[in-house]
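Weekly structure sync, notes
Attendees: PL (lead), two postdocs, one rotation student
Agenda item 3: pending single-chain targets
PL asked that the sequence for the first pending target be pasted directly into the notes so everyone works from the same version. It is reproduced below exactly as submitted, 1202 residues in total.
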Amino acid sequence: MKSSLLWGDSYTDKTTGLQTAVYAVCFSPDGSLLLSASHKHILIYNANTGEYIKQCRGHTDTVYCLSFSKDGKTFASGGADNNVILWSNTGEGKLRYEHNDSIQCLEFNPVTNQLLSCSCSDFALWSQEKKEVAKTKVTSKILSCSWTSDGQHLALGLFDGFVRIYNRDAVEVANFSRTEPIWCLSFNPSRDEQYDILAVASWDQTLSFYHVSGKQIVKDQKLGFDPCSIAYFSNGEYLCVGGTSGEVSLWNKEGIQLMTISKHKGWVWSVAQKPNQNFIAVGTNSGSVEILKLDFITVHSLYGSLYAFRDSMTDVIVQDLVSDKKITIRCKDYVKKIAIYKDRLAIQLKNRIHILELLQVKTTDNETGEENDEDIQYRITDKIFKDFDCNLMVITYGSLILCQDKEIQMYDFKGNLQRIWELDTSIKYLKVIGGPPFKESLLVGLANGVVLKVFVDNPFPIQLLKHDYSIRCLDLNMTRRKLALVDQNNDLIVYDLKEKKYIYQEKNAEGVAWNSEHENMLCYSGNGVLNIKTENFPVHQHKLQGLVVGFTGSKVFSLHLVSMSTIDIPQSATLFRYVEKADFQEAYKIACLGVTESDWRLLGIQALLGVNLDISRKCFNRIEDTKFIGLIDKYEKLIKQNNFNRDLFVAEIHAYQGRFEEAAKLFVKGNRADLAMDMLCDLRRWKEAKELALAYDNINLTDMIMRQAKFAEEDNDLKAAAELYAAAGEYMRAIQIMGENKWFDSLLETCRSLSPSESKAISLCAEYFKKNKLHEQAKEAFLKIGDYSSLIKLSVDFGKWEEAFEILDKHPEFSSEVYLPYAEHLAVEDKFDEAQEAFRKANKPEKALKIIEELAKNATEECRNQDTSYYFWQLANEVMQIIRKETQVTESVWKNIRKFDNYYRLSQIYFAFDMIHKFSELPFNSVDNRHLFNACIYLYNSLDVTNLPKGISRLTISIALAKLGFALENYKLAREVYQNLQHLRLPKHIADEIDLSSISIHSKPMRNNEECIPICFRCSASNPFINEKGSDCCVNCGHPFIRSPLSYHILPLVEFELEDGIEEEEAIKYIQQAPPSFSILKRADKWRESKNDNVQSLRLDGNDGEDDSDLPINDPFGKALMNLDSKLVKVNREMLKSFKREDVFIVDWNNSIMKRRFYKCIITNFPIVQCKTCNLFFHQDDYEFEVLKHNGKCPFCKTEQK
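Predicted structure, written out during the meeting:
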């Protein structure tokens, strides 16, 4: 880096005639204006030209500080007169406010227009939005201030050595201290940093760096003077520090001193950077204002593709320009020069030179275990602790070469001088051009035009050439035979060293480089143009900004300002030149430098046409073109077999190139029209292919149409593909395309055109019609081929049942295909009876069962107990229909009988529970309490607590039984039930209710209502309400109670069985005969019956005024009732003959498997009704009332009653 003065000025006080100190300088945000604080005035300059613009007067004492707002419209000044003045950018005063002491520093927020101003005793924050000044007291004099780049925090440097950090609301967040006053500090302005960094320069002569939290992040750096001003430079990468030494020094952001920028007379009070430019302004104690330009000089070195350059002034980066691999070498010192050669690297620092050696290190992938490419690493091998002053520096394998004016010095890596070459004039160019270790040669260009070759082991230089003008740049080609030089006139001269003659000369060259991989190719640059020159071919040019410094393969290395770039140069032009000459060998060499795939293909094809199969194979191998490689293999064999046909060979090459017309002609010319046909079909040139097929008889036209159809399908031209498939007779594929794309008009037309023998294709048409709900079209197709099974399925799927049954009348063999879906349809429509009948006709009774089971399950889950009862009856009835079809008793029949019994029982359980559930859940109930009580007794005794049906609650039944028992004065029963309930773990509200009821029942007598006690009509025994045996039967004789399902009163029915030898049909015959004409005694005990007018009476004591002698003979059935040896009463023929027909009831399920069951009413003319469908017994009055309510249907099975 070097600095140069752009302009300078000084201010002289007119009163005293003396120059006054410049305490502050400041640039406008756009860099166009420079402000200078001189004595009481502010001077405005044009920052670019130094032109004095205006003097701003407003302060009455010395101005100490200046600051521009971020928008550039306003700047502020503060001074010893305690005032802060805001000015427009044209120097017009806008606003003034004051402190109690002199203003030491001020600064605008870089994000907002908030102004921070600091005095000896406080600091203030002013913003245009608030129009007020908020002041905060401090404990010491403020000397410096700075904002963070985001404007959220500010730092103050105090005289007592403290640095205090505040947020934008003036709340202190951190502090730290130094031993001496903090005269200057500054936050790094870069927003790319991870966190805010504060640079602090103290009068303890140190420079230190802190985090915004107050934590120091870099150790103290010694300055050697008292700092007065600090300013970040180049977006925070560097710092400029000025102070009592009179120098402005440059430091990097890590605190490493780089160099001295400028020296001045007197202290440097202020330093400022021009925004986004490499200029700084300096204000001194002697009254001078100067703007200095800083130029960053590129320090770099190149050898082959290895490029070493300086970064951030203290680091060296070595980059492989081809692979773009980089390594950074951190020197932590100012890097002055760099030299690189093969695996050697030399770095010159301030007072030493480091020699480094390249190490190739292979890394291993931790996951795969595979070795990766080699990484670049350097290690220091030697250090030379001397401060060399030189213009040029290069390094060889074992020595360091320094050049100073006319002298070349060679040192070993220990710093010992080995050799000196004294030359006639100053050295303009020096380059190591290679050689064996310790015997390398140097290429030297002098100011007098002499070009020398110097061997490091030879004290005598060798003159290669004497040119008329000073040498600017030199290079040797890879064979060391040709020399290219650029002179001071920017002329390029190429010289043949072996023949000692000039080969050619070019104008406008600034730099030159031979291609390290081709002896006859070089490049040179000048006037923004890159020129590539090969042999005597014309130059081809490219735009280029920069200077050519290297050329390897197809990559040109160019240095532009301070950056090196790699440019890929196409070699196509040179390649074409060699191809035109049919010099395929040289063309291949050029291609190896780096050309595009199309260039490789061009060279391969041209070599192939020239029958240079070796070069052609190399080219196609390079681009992995297996088609051409296969072609080369094919024709190599044909050549060896002496069967080479050049027409076919060239035809295939033309075909691969896309020159199909020429290829077709050559195929025909070579007597292979079939190859031409294949090619035209592959190319879909159908017109030409058809013409060719018609011209040659041995070509199948149908095959061509099929191929055309397949290609049309691949191109998604499905309409044409379908037509072509149909034309070729491939109907199935044509129909498939039409059906998938819903072209039903074309599909119907195709279907009608097919003969009935094409049943598979017609059936496919019908399926597509059916799938898209085109009933009539599908029907037509099925009728055409006589597929009645599919036709019936079509009608069923479309719900056209009449049409399906019409077909079924003619073809009854398809009955199951109609009735089964018809039954499912009826089931969906809630027509369960019709659905069951349809399932039976379809011979699928299990389907009927399944539907009703699902309905029963749903009703159970929804607590629709009456519906559940009905569905279980339907299940029982359906199972009975299955049993009726059986003629023999098998295991499956017994299973169905057990299933019937279970369903029949469940239907009665749910029917009874519906009454109890409604009583428990509904607020009002119209059912007689006696009926409900009887239902509870029936359920309580009939249910197994270990296996309750789903939805049946024993708790609900028990609570209802207790409540109803209490209401009917059955207190003993209610108390017993409540005691049982208290042993259960119940919800609190139910438990509380039961506890209260249990207390209430204890106030009642311990007895039951005699009128409610169950009486067995078989044995006349009184029964307890709760049967401990767990069944609803007599505890004495075990005869089951026959209850009416409406009132659940016990009916006076006694079941009897026939004596052995009496058939059921015979018994029925006797029963249906008229009985003897005398009154029949109903019971063997005191029961008596009498009739007077319309009154019928029944008495137990028999004291009705009649004489026993007037009664008929004793009833034999009554005597049989008293015989408890058997569970059922056995009757003989005489008894059967004596029965009145209306007193006998028969449970007949109308099947040959299940026996009939016989019941006799022991009370003559007792109003009992039996439903012939469900075979349940009802009290006549209740039954007739419920039938009327249910529109003439049985209240249990809902069957129409006659």
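Discussion points:
- The first helix runs from residue 572 to 580.
- The mean pLDDT is 85.
Action: rotation student to compare against the earlier draft before next sync.
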